[in-house]
Fold:
Amino acid sequence: MPRLIAVDLGSHAVKISTWRVQGREVTFEERHAMTVPQDGGLPKLEHRLEALDVLLDANPKLAAGPTDRVALALPGGLATHHRLILPFTDAVQVEKTLCFALEAEVPFDLDEMVVASRTLEVTTQSELLTAVVREDKLGEWIAAFAERQLDPECVFVDSELLGHWAEGAVTGENGAVVVVDVGHTHTAVAVVVDGLVKFCRTVSVGGHAFTRAIQRALGCEWAEAEARKHGTWVDVGDDSEVTDPGVRSSSGYAQLSEPARKAMDGAVGLLLAELRSTLLRAEDSLGVEVEEVRLTGGGSGFRELWDYIAADLGVSVRPVPSADGEVLPAHWTLAYTAAMRVGAQNDSHAIDLRIGDLAYRGGTDMLRLGVIYGSASIAVFAAAFLTMFVWQYHGLASELADVDDRTAEVIQSTFPEVRESTARGPTRVAIMQESTLLAVSRAEMLGDGSGGVPPTIERLARLTAAFPPHPDVTVTLSGLTLTPTKVQFDAETDGFASAAMVEEMLQSDETFQRATKGDDVRTSGNRVKFPMNISLTDETPEEG
Structure:
C-alpha cells in the first residue's frame, strides 16, 4: 500500500510521520524523531540534515518507495507572504499582473525568486495571498531530500499549514482565529478568517531565545539551560545532571532562580511584542477582530506562556484540537497537516512552492522499474533484428551516396556561389530554401519596374514618417514584415504612454488607419514591448 510521508525538518528535532493509504482511507502508521545537536548557536541546514541522516540510517524503511507521496513543511523564515488586491477577476489577467504588483511590495529581484499564490476571494476584484522564496534556497532543500530518497511532491510554508487547526472555531461576523506555533528558532503565526489563512508571518523568537536568556543569566552550559527550561534538570550538588532533553513533562519556569526568570521574561516580552504588532497589522488590513488564539508547537509546553498571551492580548488561549480523535503531541502538528494536505485529507489551503523549474516530476522510479523488467524482452528482440539491420544499412548507404552526388551537382549549377562542401553538407536544404526566398523577396521589393520608386521602399518610408517624432518617442522595431496586404512588426518603447502614442499616430495615417496594437508586456529592462498588426485591405487583420 502507498504511504503519505511528512517531514518537518525542525531546528530542535527532525520529525517524520507516515500513514498508510488504502483507497480513501488513511491510517496512521508511525512517528520518528531525531534531536538536532545543539551548542547554543542557531542550527543550520547541514545540522538538520545530519540529524535526518542519523534517523534514516536507523530506520531505512522511511525512504520513499515508488508509490509513496512525500510532503515537506518549509520553515517560514525562508519565505515571505504578501496579501494583494488586484482590480481583475479574470484568472489569466491576474497571473499576468501578479509579478508587476508584487515588485512594489518586495525589495529584491523577482527573477531570482519562486513566486506562488492562491486566491482568497473574488468579488469585483481578486484578493490573493502570495508566497515568495529564493529559488536557490528552495532548490537546495529539495535537492537534499531527493538525495535521501525523500523527494517532496509538495513543499508548504509551515505557517500556512496552521490553518487546519482553526477548524471548529465559532467567531462573530468579522471574527478571526489565530493559530500560533511556538517553535525552537521561530514562531509561526496564521490569522484564519472563514476557514482560510489570510495573513501569516514568521517571528524570529522562540524556545531558543528562552534558553539563551537562561544561559546568560546563570552563566551555565547550553544543555543545563535547556534542561532547566523544560524542568528536566536534576540538581544534586556537584553531580547535577541533565535528564533526557526529549522528556517534557512540564515547564521548568517555576523552578528557575529570580535572575533566570527575569531574563526569560524579557525574551517572552519580545515574543509578545512581535505577536501583538503582527495581530494589530492583520486586524487593520483584513478588517477583522481576533477573538481566539490557539497555541501549538514545542514551545506551547511552557504553560506560563498561555497566561502571558491571554493577559497581553485580552483573548482566550486554547490548545489546538485533537486530530481525528487522537491527542496529537504539539510538536507533531506541522507534520500531521503537511501529510493530510498532500493526501487531500482536509479542506485547509496552502500554497505549493514546487512550481516552474522546481515542479515535482515524480514517477521516474516507476519508469526505471519498467525499463529494468522489460530489458530482458528487449534484448531478445534486439538480437533477432541486429543482423537484418546491418545488411539493410550497407545497401541504403550506397544508394544515399549516389543521391548525394547528384544533389550536389544540381545545387552548384543553380547557385554557383554555394561551395561544394556546403552543397554536400547537412545544411544544403536550408541553403537552397534561403537562397530561393532571398531571390523572391528581392523581386517583390523591386516591383514590376513600371513605377518610379519600388512599392516596398515607398511603404517603408511612409511607415517611418507615420511614427511619433524622435526624440519625443523612441521605438525599437524587430521582426518587420511588409506585404501588399499587411504590415507586421514587434516594437519596444519606454512606457505604456509611448506605446499608446505609436498606435494613435499610425491610425491617423490613411494608409495605416487599421493599425492594431497587441498586449503590452513589460520587459526586465523596465521597457514595454508589444506587437503591431496593420491591415492594408478592408479584410480583418491577421493575428500576430
About this structure: Confidence is low (pLDDT under 50) at residues 244-249, 364-374.
